[in-house]
Design goal:
6-stranded mixed β-sheet, Alpha-Beta Plaits, Rossmann fold, 14 strands, 2 domains, 29% strand, 307 residues, alpha/beta
Length: 307
């Protein structure tokens, strides 16, 4: 494996444990998802992989080299798209992307060709040569291009689709896949479970600083294969209804309620949800095959998180 994280624990002052014995690995050509709610410990782990923060215990290796002892290896091996985005004041998107590529050792002609390719793939031509304040979504796409123009052996993307419109999100996921297919190990940090499911090869769910579930999406969903996913959106101001006995593993997040329903209980579930909508309790509902969302909610809820 190109990246190996083994038993990493990070304890801050006053005993705050941000990471608690995290272990994972990412290989070349793989998109590995790091999923979890805000405050789960994802950003702290990334900071340690990049050599910016030193673990309290555990090891992080890139190509077998301990980056705690040699943090320069992480800086040389990793490309990083931070969650906050990269400020490019005074530069056009093309200039910022080209500058990033040159700083990562790319030849001028190769960097320019790759920058043009990325700008076209993400439909950014409108802003290509404009040194103006960009919207959050466009800035996020430019930040991705800066990380992908000359990708490192490890490419770390922290919430890459925040603020991006649906069409360009689809384009972005295609480019993420291409980066991995070209040989980089991609570590994707996100809480967007539905989108991540379409892109990742393997993933780890982190909550409370610990890995609470890991594997391929198919493996994680294996014990939900015989169940259907019921999702309800409550009307604004409505109280949560009394839940029927056929609804397994119910969970609530804001106005959304999800649970699992057996195939034999499907007619009963449809009738109940329809009644709730007619009574003005539920705004809308859907029933379909179980998704990674069900797995995610189950693990996070079981760990006591309500984020």
């Amino acid at each position: 494996m190109l990246l190996e994280v083994d038993g990493v624990t990070k304890i801050y002052k006053k005993g705050v444990k941000a990471n608690d014995g995290i272990s994972l690995s990412v290989g070349r050509g793989e998109v590995f998802g790091l999923l979890g709610p805000n405050g789960a410990g994802k950003t702290t782990l990334v900071s340690q992989i990049l050599g910016l923060t030193v673990p309290t215990s555990g090891t992080i290796r890139i190509d077998g080299i301990d980056v705690v002892r040699k943090p320069s290896v992480a800086r040389q091996s990793c490309s990083y798209q931070p969650q906050a985005g990269v400020p490019i004041d005074g530069l056009t998107p093309m200039q910022a992307i080209e500058l990033s590529g040159r700083l990562h050792g790319g030849a001028r002609s190769d960097v320019r060709a790759r920058a043009k390719q990325l700008i076209g793939a993400l439909a950014l031509e409108e802003w290509e040569h404009k040194a103006i304040t960009l919207s959050g979504g466009v800035m996020r796409l430019v930040s991705f291009c800066m990380a992908a123009v000359v990708p490192g052996r490890i490419v770390i993307l922290d919430e890459p689709t925040n603020d991006i419109d649906p069409l360009r999100r689809k384009m972005l996921w295609q480019e993420v896949r291409k980066v991995a297919d070209a040989g980089s190990a991609v570590l994707l940090v996100t809480h967007n479970v539905l989108e991540a499911e379409r892109c990742v090869d393997r993933l780890a769910i982190i909550d409370g600083g610990r890995v609470v579930g890991s594997g391929t999406p198919a493996a994680l969903k294996s014990d939900t294969a015989d169940w259907l996913h019921l999702e309800l959106v409550l009307e604004p101001g409505s109280s949560e209804p009394e839940l029927p006995s056929f609804l397994r593993r119910p969970a609530t997040a804001g106005r959304r309620m999800i649970g699992e329903v057996s195939g034999s209980a499907l007619p009963e579930a449809i009738a109940w949800a329809t009644t709730m909508r007619k009574r003005g309790v539920v705004e809308e509902f859907s029933i379909g095959p179980a998704t990674l969302v069900d797995v995610y909610v189950r693990h996070v809820t079981a760990n006591g998180s309500h984020d």
